[in-house]
Amino acid sequence: MNNTKSPKIQTTHATCNQKARDFSVIQSEAIEESRFHVIVFSKNYASSSWCLDELVKIMECQMMKTRQAVYPIFYDVEPTHVRKQSGEFGKAFSKHENDENAEKWRQALVKATSFSGRDLRNTADGHEVDFIKLVVTDISLKLPVFSADENLVGMRTRVNDVISSLNAAPNEVCMIGIWGMGGGGKTTLARAVFDQICNEFEGSSFVENVRESSTKPLLGLKSLQQQVLRDVFKRQDIFINGVLEGKKEMRKKMHGIKVLVVLDDVDHIDQLKALAGGRNWFKKGSVIIITTRDEQVSHDVEPIQVDLLSNEEALPLFCMNAFGTQIPVQGYEELSREVVSYAADLPLTITVLGSHLRGRNTCGWKGVLESLKRMPKKEVVDMLELSYTILEDNIKEIFLDVACMRLHYSIDHAVFILESCGHFEARCGLDVLKEKSLITISKDDEEMVMHDQIVEMGKNIVRRPNRKEPHKHSRLWEDLEIEHILANDLGTEAT
Length: 495
Description:
Layout: H1 2-33, E1 36-41, H2 49-63, E2 69-74, H3 79-84, H4 87-93, H5 102-112, E3 118-119, H6 128-142, H7 156-167, E4 174-179, H8 186-197, E5 203-207, H9 210-214, H10 220-233, H11 243-254, E6 259-263, H12 269-275, E7 287-292, E8 302-305, H13 311-322, H14 333-343, H15 347-357, H16 362-374, H17 378-389, H18 393-405, H19 411-420, H20 426-435, E9 440-441, E10 448-449, H21 452-463, H22 479-487
């Protein structure tokens, strides 16, 4: 009888040991593959050899210089007690004094307390709910950006800046506008922020191409209102019959839920009023983000201007699209710098050209660079030109003069020159161009600057009707063309 049971008992022990080993392997792999390690130290933490073994593994990963982050939380225990294994924490650790792993555990505890974290006892007056919110914010700012775009470069700081603005008043309805020129990365930034924080809300919606969709006969603003409600409440049986009804439904339904809504490419105040009428539509803690080229589309929204890429960020972004790595392939270093210089730090141009040049040989690259000097890429021009097409006719003329004369003067001097050309509303016109992100004005010396790609877009508009006949252009800026036209008396009569 004993002989028949003994093998079963041994088999059971063997199975348990195997399961323990398997679980240990799984846990070890989970630690190695994690991006972030949150360690919660309590008074009884050190009583568990399992927890201490996990801590040793986490610290070993740090020794390997992985990109993992460590965030210690001290829950009702002093950091010094953890570091020195003293106080209540020391009592819990004392049961391991004779364990062969004791010294290894001590070293891991000392190292873990060297990382920046939070202590409940001196944070948020000890209120756990507020403490947890602060921890979530800390971790959000340190986590990598998770986005559908795998080629994001130079976005970490910008994402952190936006999230910091959102966290300034966590118990209020926050409405911000990401504002800047076309192709400057507004949508990419908004998407990266959305992807990172959307899980913190009860409902969320990212509405793309508001400008374009709101004018389509079969879509319109009521369709966008319907999309927001369906996204937020995860229901497809919500239908809107008209914009006015949509406003009422949104105000009634959204007021009871904490939401994140991103409205991408808003170009008219009516769009904003229909989709995010005011802070009183939303529950406190909700966040509304819009992207726009027009500073005037404010409607009680705090504008945040998007900075273009720095030189250090532009080259890696281009290389990611051209080569799949953040550094140029050997033999393409100088050509890559030439392309980035042409793009003048504009993310759209950098991305388009990187994808266009991918897989071409150096001769192909040189050919593309030569052609760009005569004709910018259509994808880039079309995107940038959207800001031009919505201008009033008189403002369009001011814009083309600025682009073709390439004015880099103080505002007063620029106004003087433009008024000399017959633009008596020049100052007002420059204000409009600034609002539409077509020019920038430096704060220090009030100098007016137009981005290289915007200049190219303006010149392309002038050339387009008679590209091969410069004497028919409304404006001239190339010295050789001007000399040829004057020498051959090809100029047209003023009208």
